[in-house]
Amino acid sequence: MTTLSTLPPVTATIPASPTSATVTPRPPLKVVALRTLAALMGLLLLAAVTRASGLWLFALPFAATAGIIAVAPSAPFSQPRSILLGQLSGALTGLAVTAVTGPSIWAAAVAAALSTAPMLLLRAPHPPAGATAAFVGLTAPGWLFLVNPVLVASVLLIAGGWAVGKLLPGHKYPVYWR
């Protein structure tokens, strides 16, 4: 029987030629249903805390993080270290870029690209953090953005992923904390 923990991680392979692409096998419907439920639970958690607290946590990069935790809970980029350090370094990169250039589409592009370096150097790749850097590059929200919403949303999503991992059979999250 295939469970969430035995399903291979979601991967993408760039084909060398059009005929050499590797296709990820379609998961069983039970796995699809459980992972969809996990995504829904994470997103509803973000929405509920946003609504109750007035904190703006339901932003697109954090919605993407919730999806990654649900769809690929064992992937390195969905682990707590990658989420925390990736999101914080992405936001910090965006803030540094906008401190020099001001907010613009160009600052967003540069911030998103430059956010790759600290994530890789910190061994904390987290693709939605590039979107966080781009958002900061467009808006220049100020240094408190690192705490609210970046740190708060990241911790909330990790805690929610952990809770979902305890509630849903076969959904192990996180795989590791370091």
TrEMBL record:
Q: Which UniProt keywords apply?
A: Membrane, Transmembrane, Transmembrane helix
Parts of the chain that traverse the membrane: 31-49, 56-75, 95-122, 143-164
Identify the InterPro entries for this entry.
HPP (IPR007065), TM_HPP (IPR058581)
Name the domain of life.
Bacteria
**Sequence ranges assigned to domain HPP transmembrane region in this UniProt record:** 25-174
Q: Which PANTHER family match?
A: TRANSMEMBRANE PROTEIN DDB_G0269096-RELATED
- Protein name (database record): HPP transmembrane region domain-containing protein
